[in-house]
Structure formats: structure tokens, C-alpha cells
Amino acid sequence: MNFVPPTSRYRLYFDETGNGDLDAAEKHPNERYLSITGVVVKQDTHDGYLTRRMNRLKEDIFGAQEVVLHRRDIMRSEGDFVALRNVERRQEFDWRMSSIIAECLIAAFTISIDKLEHKQRYKVWRYSPYHYLLECLLERFVLWLRRNNFQGDMLGEARNPRHDKQLRRAFTYFYKHKTGMVDSQMIQARLTSKDLRLLPKEKNIAGLQIADLLAHPCHRSLKFEQLGEAIGPDHGTYLVGLLRRYWYDRNPNSGVISGYGTKWLP
What we know:
By secondary structure, the chain is an alpha/beta fold. It has ten helices and six strands. It has a single domain (7-265), classed as Nucleotidyltransferase, domain 5, CATH 3.30.420.10. The chain has helices at 22-27, 43-62, 71-76, 87-104, 115-121, 129-148, 161-176, 184-190, 206-227, 235-247, and strands spanning 9-17, 33-42, 107-114, 151-157, 197-199, 262-265. It has a six-stranded mixed beta sheet, with helices on both faces. The radius of gyration is 18 Å and the shape is globular.
């Protein structure tokens, strides 16, 4: 693959909510689902404009650009985020994050799986739910790249050596083989690397933090839609509304998001 400069490279930053343990889905209702969300940003936009805006936001609200945004701690207003206990600070933070997401993303995808249904349906096939989601996410990213005549790569958060090794192996397998939706020639023409990049949270990557903030509300919205239940209004619901309005990939002819920007499994 020839070098693709940042001005022409589109990077998918992804994060998950839940875990890949199939057995836990039967024992604990709160562990029934696993979901992965990816957001696409043009690399030069990410490394320049988007990162500068995130740094200004952190400096203004938390007093330090080195703060790494993590949704769970933000929701609890704990640790570095105690400033969010102030209502006005919280409103300013939410508004400015919404503006960044509305202005800087290019595309978004959310794939969720009901692990319990997956296990009950497939008595023999035990494909790792996490790797299954990763493959579905990659398929949609490659198809989006092809449709727009773009090239790109992916970046996720490093977890632990065992998890990261398995994830990199699954990515490399995808890169070399066809799937139900894309063949290896298309994959290799659109992805700029056969290797998956994973960086630790401490690297303070803006795109990974946005994926972290969106992963849970995106899954929650997709789950409630699948169950036919109403979801209450909050900031997470508002952010998902932005993705549905602007960034979730969709059928270019019908405008339908399901199957393109979102996918429910199995």
C-alpha cells in the first residue's frame, strides 16, 4: 500500500461497552449485551483542529489539557471531573462537546449483539462476540471508504496484552480474507495497513475519547429501538440524535441507517 498523507486518510476511532463473555450473559442481565461504536475523522482534522478544540475545552473546564475524558467518571463527576458538579460547568461541557461532535466527525457506526440470543441460537458456532462485532464494524467502514473513494485505518484503545493480541490477530485475518460483504482485494485497497493500532488511554487521543463518550449512549439507543421501548431525554440521547441526523452511515438511495450505520446482532 502506498503512503496516504493525513490530508487524505480517514481514521476510525472505536470503543466498546460491555464484555465478550458469553457465559456471563446467562448469569447477569446487565452483561447480556456487547456493543462497539466507531467514529470517523479525517486524520489532519483530528490531529489539528479537533485536538486543539478538545484541549481548550479541558483547559477551560478542568484546568488541564492532560485530563483524559472517560464517560463513567464524567457521569459520576469523580476524580478529574469534580468540576462537573457545578451545574453551569456541566452545561458548558455538554454544549461544547456536542459542538465538537457535530462539527468534526465524518461518519459513525454502532454494532450491538445480544450475547444470550447468540449463544442460544448457535449451539456449535462460538465465534467470539467481540471479534464478530469488529468484523461487522470493519465491513461497514470498508464499504463506506469504497463508496466515497477514500482510504483509511483504525485506532482503538489498548486494554491488556492478551486482549490486544487477540484483537490484532482478528484484524489481520480480516485484512487477508473475504467476508460475507467484502473481499480481500477491496479490503486491502481501502485500508492503509494490515495491522491494527491500539494505544493506551494515557496517550490522550481525542478520537478515542469521543468514541468512549458515545459508546454507551449509542448502544442504549439501539437496544431500546430493538426492544421497541421509549428512551428518556438526556445528553446521551441528544448526542445519538446528532449522529442519526448527521453522521451515521446510511443507504445512499433510501437514507435508511439500519444495516449501514447501525446493526443489531445476531
